[in-house]
Design the sequence.
């Protein structure tokens, strides 16, 4: 309405080029004075400017006119046209991407090009609604709602107080919880814990043991009693994950009979002679869907990490560290377990980096560093005339540095059973005494072993792409007289001596074939399979 009023007021007052050129005459024909002329001319100009600023940016529907052109250019073009004509209308540049006149087309098409913000003079920006508050963060995972911190159950974590009962109480609470649950051993604390068993007999499935702090073993004989074979034990669990950046410190030097290892408090805390039986640091027994990742195990009295009667096991990014002269400190020990994967792991110990015992099948080991230690071994099997069965083992992409052997199979005389379908491939050895070994006369005792004819049968053993340096003997294949090794395949073997006193490859009762580059030559391998036929004919007349 205001714009229409301005327009009606302007209609009877056409713009004059100059009050001097066109004098305004009153009814009596007399000229007005110059002041009246200037006043009316000034009034016309004021009304015109109000019309320009207030009315032209508004279309016929009362909405603000938006434009995709430069707002400053659009405003100047309109101003010039209005001043030069009697009926003002905006002038549109046909080459510019601008919207049509508000008179001819009220609706404004949307430009496909991004538009700069309009000028606050020509096209005021409409008010923008205030955005709603951002959505709240997602709820934490269920495991965080079922977290059981050992400190909440009495653990001190000062490295002196016995926290065994607090760990037992924490486990009992987590074991009975529904859904996912996490037992937390927090970072920055040392927890002194004696022999303990985390039983899963009555537990719900899937427990996470989050180890970020340090668990240390007691060094007093009284804390162990007699006959304790395991320090930390997890038994009969359906889904157990042991993970974190923490450490299990066995302080095993008090058991090894030397000061070797990082155990500065052993002399003051040890109140007597340690028991004869040395415990394994961490044992998982009778469990399925087992994961161990990220943790470190150090200076175990005996074996560091043992899986016994388990299936579906994965070990990754685990570190084992103990001195080369620490006796019987295997890195990872497998027994009666199947579907096992060990990868991206560093193992340094005083015995086998990985030991595979009877009852194991479908075992895959890859991307593992071993050393110091005794290499990766299958066995010893058949001790005490027992039966042993191992099958489907793959060891590949591993590195051995300064170890006793590289990849080894060892059996005792008098045993029975079989080892078959074993592959050792892409093995790099550096300063290893004997990189490739089969020893069916294994005897790990002070007293000499009796000669026996029975033996575990070895067949379908493959060695592929074994390279590096040795210090004693490159290949040692000592198989049973009565039950020779069969189908031994060696391909692309390149082993260079790194010592002054080395031996040639040795073979006994070994049958198989050679392929690819073989260095040094292995001429002792027999290229046929031995077959023994014992036929007894009993004729009754």
Sequence:
């Amino acid at each position: 309405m205001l714009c229409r009023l301005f327009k009606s007021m302007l209609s009877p007052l056409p713009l004059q080029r100059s009050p001097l050129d066109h004098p305004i005459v009153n009814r009596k024909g007399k000229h007005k004075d110059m002041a009246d002329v200037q006043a009316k001319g000034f009034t016309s100009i004021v009304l015109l400017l109000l019309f320009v600023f207030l009315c032209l940016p508004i279309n016929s529907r009362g909405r603000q006119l938006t434009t995709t052109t430069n707002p400053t250019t659009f405003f100047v073009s309109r101003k010039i046209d209005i001043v030069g004509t009697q009926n003002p209308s905006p002038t549109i540049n046909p080459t510019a991407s601008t919207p049509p006149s508000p008179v001819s087309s009220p609706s404004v098409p949307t430009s496909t090009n991004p538009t700069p913000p309009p000028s606050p003079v020509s096209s005021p920006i409409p008010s923008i609604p205030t955005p709603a508050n951002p959505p709240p963060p997602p709820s934490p995972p269920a495991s965080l709602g079922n977290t059981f911190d050992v400190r909440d159950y009495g653990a001190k974590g000062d490295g002196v107080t016995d926290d065994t009962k607090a760990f037992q109480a924490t486990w009992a609470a987590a074991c009975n919880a529904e859904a996912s649950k996490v037992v937390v051993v927090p970072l920055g604390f040392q927890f002194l814990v004696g022999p303990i068993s985390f039983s899963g007999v009555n537990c719900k499935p899937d427990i996470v043991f989050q180890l970020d702090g340090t668990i240390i073993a007691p060094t007093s004989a009284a804390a162990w009693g007699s006959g304790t074979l395991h320090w930390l034990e997890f038994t009969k669990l359906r889904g157990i994950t042991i993970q974190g950046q923490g450490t299990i410190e066995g302080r095993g030097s008090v058991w090894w009979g030397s000061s070797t290892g990082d155990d500065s408090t052993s002399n003051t805390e040890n109140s007597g002679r340690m028991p004869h039986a040395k415990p394994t640091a961490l044992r998982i027994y009778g469990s399925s869907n087992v994961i161990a990742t990220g943790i470190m195990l150090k200076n175990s009295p005996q074996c560091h990490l043992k899986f016994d009667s388990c299936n579906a096991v994965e070990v990754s990014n685990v570190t084992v560290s103990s001195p080369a002269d620490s006796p019987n400190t295997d890195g990872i020990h497998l027994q009666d377990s199947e579907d096992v994967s060990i990868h991206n792991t560093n193992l340094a110990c005083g015995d086998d980096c990985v030991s595979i015992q009877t009852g194991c099948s479908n075992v895959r080991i890859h991307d593992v560093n071993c050393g110091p230690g005794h290499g990766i071994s299958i066995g010893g099997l058949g001790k005490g005339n027992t039966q042993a069965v191992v099958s489907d083992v793959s060891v590949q992409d591993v590195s051995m540095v300064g170890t006793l052997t590289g990849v080894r199979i060892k059996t005792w005389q008098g045993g029975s059973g079989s080892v078959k379908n074993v592959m050792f491939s892409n093995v790099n050895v550096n300063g290893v005494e004997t990189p490739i070994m089969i020893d069916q006369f294994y005897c790990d005792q002070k007293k000499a072993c009796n000669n026996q004819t029975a033996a575990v049968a070895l067949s379908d053993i493959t060695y592929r792409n074994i390279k590096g340096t040795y210090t004693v003997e490159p290949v040692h294949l000592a198989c049973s007289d009565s039950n020779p090794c069969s189908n031994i395949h060696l391909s692309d073997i390149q082993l260079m001596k790194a010592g002054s006193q080395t031996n040639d490859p040795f073979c006994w009762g070994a049958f198989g074939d050679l392929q690819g580059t073989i260095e040094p030559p292995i001429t002792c391998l027999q290229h046929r399979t031995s077959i023994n036929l014992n036929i007894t004919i009993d004729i009754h007349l």
About this structure: The longest strand covers residues 416-432. Residues 12-35, 57-144, 258-271, 533-537 have pLDDT under 50 and may be disordered. The two ends are 137 Å apart (CA to CA).
